[in-house]
Amino acid sequence: MSLSSHPPEAGGRRSVRVELGERSYEILIGAGLLQGTGAEMARRLPCARALVVADETVAPLHAPALLASLERAGISAALHQVPAGETTKRFSELERLVDRTIAERLERGDALVALGGGVVGDLTGFAAGVVRRGMHLVQVPTSLLAQVDSSVGGKTGINSPRGKNLIGVFHQPSLVVADTAVLETLSEREFRAGYAEVAKYGLIDRPDFFGWLEANWRAVFAGPGRAEAVAVSCQAKADVVAGDERETGARALLNLGHTFGHALESAAAYDPARLVHGEAVSIGMALAHRFSTRLGLCPASETERAVRHLQAVGLPTAIREIPGPAFLADELMNKIAQDKKVQRGSLTFILTRGIGQAFVARDVEPAAVAGFLAEEITAGPA
Amino acid sequence: MSLSSHPPEAGGRRSVRVELGERSYEILIGAGLLQGTGAEMARRLPCARALVVADETVAPLHAPALLASLERAGISAALHQVPAGETTKRFSELERLVDRTIAERLERGDALVALGGGVVGDLTGFAAGVVRRGMHLVQVPTSLLAQVDSSVGGKTGINSPRGKNLIGVFHQPSLVVADTAVLETLSEREFRAGYAEVAKYGLIDRPDFFGWLEANWRAVFAGPGRAEAVAVSCQAKADVVAGDERETGARALLNLGHTFGHALESAAAYDPARLVHGEAVSIGMALAHRFSTRLGLCPASETERAVRHLQAVGLPTAIREIPGPAFLADELMNKIAQDKKVQRGSLTFILTRGIGQAFVARDVEPAAVAGFLAEEITAGPA
Ligand SMILES: NC(=O)c1ccc[n+]([C@@H]2O[C@H](COP(=O)([O-])OP(=O)(O)OC[C@H]3O[C@@H](n4cnc5c(N)ncnc54)[C@H](O)[C@@H]3O)[C@@H](O)[C@H]2O)c1
Ligand SMILES: NC(=O)c1ccc[n+]([C@@H]2O[C@H](COP(=O)([O-])OP(=O)(O)OC[C@H]3O[C@@H](n4cnc5c(N)ncnc54)[C@H](O)[C@@H]3O)[C@@H](O)[C@H]2O)c1
Ligand SMILES: [Zn+2]
Ligand SMILES: [Zn+2]
Predict the structure, then answer these.
(1) Which annotated residues bind Zn(2+) (chains A, B) (predicted)?
(2) What is the largest CA-CA distance in chain B?
(3) A238 alpha carbon – ligand 3 mean position (Å)
(4) Which helix (H) or strand (E) element contains residue B329?
(5) For FRET with A111, which of A84, A208, B194, B223 sits at 20 to 30 Å CA-CA?
(6) How many CB atoms within 10 Å of residue A222?
């Protein structure tokens, strides 16, 4: 069964187009595409030079193949290495990358290439957005999360000591190359965390895709089902982005599970030993479903089905599964109130009426959320 | 005689609209407008809070009146002070301002207010473009240069150690308030330097305006002619910006005098004791005219007329007028080649066929420029 509107071309390669007028671009998906990245760039961009950005984990694994591919295509390329981890999304690393880009004499037609997970993608995208007020950006996502989420849509940025992703620009890539084979070197935990975002697209508005995932998730984890899952996810994100490039409306649905999830990540001080982003999103989606059921919006059977699938792939679905000290409902409520999506005090949540039926709920009662969280923490599933 | 398409309203106030679809905005021009800034913001923006940014020179002079005006309009406001001078356009000041903006809990609907010259405007605009991926920006320009040029058009940014204005974003203001009375506290040298940009609009494509300036420049310097000169200049810039928001084409004409001017500024190490930007532009415009005449493009009488007016207001028009060590033609040529407007080795210049007849010339012979500069340095007017 093929769910993506763009079935595989010869060689199993797929392509999804993000329609944004003159800022439209292609997402290429398939195993082994890394080696062809230079040629794909040369076909599309004036690009004579490129600066490849990768973290210290990904650089030794995949940068040599990418650099060789660029050289073969006649693009002179250098490598800029950054530390691994979320703290790389900071001003000092932005400045270092911007300086390097200018020092390499990249002109406006040249490209910054983000080879890595969402951290490298967000940092590199921001730099590409501000050097000479906008240079070409090519995303070569290497984590599942980056392939299905962060590399598509043009949101870029760094963190402030006062909150995540508070500083950045919208800057669309010129091309995204998602090589599903590079995921082989990703840890199982990171792969699984990225899968939470894949499942999210099914839960938002693609019930057929969710059913396909229930039947085929083992093939997604093992390899053969990967390109299909990535392609459908990219198509889902591309559809939302095309309708709402700058997140003023429909794009909010992509935050299913994220209001709760961000509060948990923040309360856990972004300590990856306790929780990584996809795990927080998995718990957040389970909470959004249970909260919707509690409000009488979503049948209990639908919530059970959503939670059962997340558990089947090994993702956490309850606050009490997070290792370490217990959370406080008050603390989580404070985090939720600080969330940047909060407008003038009223709470906006993504709730659901069932699998594939998420919606934006405004004016959710803070007291109802607080009561629900207190119960989850003390008596919820563990 | 009134040249601006928007003659004064009651109270002598004028307004120019920058047409950019949903990013359109108003430039209000007149004496005493500072006191009404809060009310004008309250009429247009959701704005509950504002952060006013000013340098240490302008803050004591004009921030109290602006802060009072915001408070009267029910906008709670704080002041962020930065050092005066070009070096404030740097990463560390950007980070400090971004942090302050987030610390003040400004939400997306709130505004950053740039009270100052082009330095404060460029830095504040950049910060407004990146906090939460875009906040409201209100420009309250206090130098003549900022009123007629930098506050309009959405170019924002900071400098790299490797070149000026290389880092930034396009971020249009929501409102520009140009109070011509605040120019009273500006030094005569800075006022005169800003006047070079006013004359530039006449020289580019407004010969009538140039004629008006020849007749009325004393009134512009003294006060009564100021609002008219600022309004026509803003209209000229607004027209160009509306046709080419992101500087891919026609906007290049605004660089009349700037290729030579930037090279001189850079060779003088941006030392304001030797040269400030408007003075460099004045010399650059004189050079562009003389070079055009030498190439047989512009009648000598037109060049003489342009130069005569710049000299009449006290602006420099020759390289040899710059105090300090002599310049080298080779050094200037290197600076010109490094200029960010250079595309793949070919030189693009703004040349002219006469007063108000500037045009973009591509593929200018580098050897012709070098020969011309060598002559200007050794034998040109002094
Ligand atoms: N811009 C957006 O729209 C958007 C959307 C979602 C998330 N994000 C951001 O993305 C970031 C999270 O992304 P992430 O989960 O990819 O984090 P990440 O970039 O830190 O990658 C996770 C870890 O996996 C390693 N890694 C990546 N690819 C690998 C590979 N092929 N082999 C071996 N190791 C590999 C990395 O070195 C890192 O240690 C967060 O900062 C989040 O805010 C952005
Ligand atoms: N964004 C654009 O489109 C654009 C266009 C042109 C220039 N610029 C930038 O603008 C900057 C130059 O602007 P500028 O000439 O206004 O420089 P500036 O901001 O440094 O101001 C010049 C000096 O005048 C002082 N000053 C300003 N207003 C005053 C007042 N009312 N009373 C007393 N003192 C006052 C300032 O403190 C400063 O010392 C440069 O950085 C240039 O790159 C930007
Ligand atoms: Zn996410
Ligand atoms: Zn200028």
Answers:
(1) 197, 258, 277
(2) 61
(3) 15
(4) helix B329-338
(5) A84
(6) 10
The full set of domain ranges for chain A reads 10-189, 256-378
Tokens representing residue B371 in the block: 């020969």
pLDDT of amino acid A23: 93
The Cα B348–Cα B159 span in angstroms is 22
Using CA atoms, how far apart are residues B278 and B288, in angstroms rounded to an integer? Answer: 15
- Phi (first) and psi of residue B82, to 5 degrees: -125, 160
Give the residue numbers of A marked as catalytic: 133, 155, 197, 237, 247, 251, 255, 258, 262, 277
CA dihedral B64, B67, B69, B73 (to 10 degrees): -160
Residue A248 confidence (pLDDT)? 75
Residues 80-109 of B with CB under 8 A from A: 91, 94-95, 98-99, 102-103, 107
Beta strand spans in B90-204 (E):
111-116, 136-141, 158-160, 163-167, 175-179
Q: Quick check: helix, strand or coil at residue B269?
A: coil
List, in order, residues 6 or more apart from B310 with CB less than 8 Å away. B196, B199, B282, B285, B286, B316, B317
Mean pLDDT for back-to-back runs of 10 residues, chain A (382 residues): 64 90 96 98 94 98 98 97 97 98 92 98 98 97 98 96 93 98 98 98 98 98 97 96 82 94 94 96 98 98 98 98 95 82 69 97 90 90 68
**Cα B264 to Cα A47, B153, B167, B253, B373, distances in angstroms:** 31, 25, 21, 19, 11
pTM, entire model: 0.94
- Going by C-alpha positions, the residue among B347, B202, B199, B345 that lies closest to residue B260 is B347
Q: What is the CATH number of domain B256-378?
A: 1.20.1090.10
Residue with tokens 């400004």: B106
- A239 alpha carbon, distance to own chain's centre: 15
Contacts of B375 (CB under 8 A, 6+ apart): none
Longest dimension (CA), chain A: 61
Residue entry with tokens 């509107």 = A5
CA-closest candidate to residue B105, choices A353, A254, A160 = A160
Dist. CA B212–CA B3, nearest whole Å: 8
Instruction: Tally Cβ neighbours within 10 Å of residue B63.
Output: 22
SS (H, E, C) A232-267: HHHHHHHHHHHHCCCCCCHHHHHHCCHHHHHHHHHH
Distance from CA of B301 to the nearest CA of A (A): 38
Q: Residues A334-351, buried b or exposed e (16+ Cβ, 10 A)?
A: ebbeebebeeeeebbbbb
With vertex at residue B28, the alpha carbon angle to CA B24 and CA B30, rounded to the nearest 5 degrees, is 165
Angle at the Cα of B147 from the Cα atoms of B82 and B274, rounded to 5 degrees:
65
Helix (H) or strand (E) holding B217: helix B207-222
Cβ contacts (< 8 Å) between B48 and chain A: which residues? 344
Taking domain B10-189, whether its CATH number is 3.40.50.1970 is answered by yes
Helix axes A329-338, A258-267, angle to 10 degrees: 120
The interface pTM score, or ipTM, of the predicted complex is: 0.92
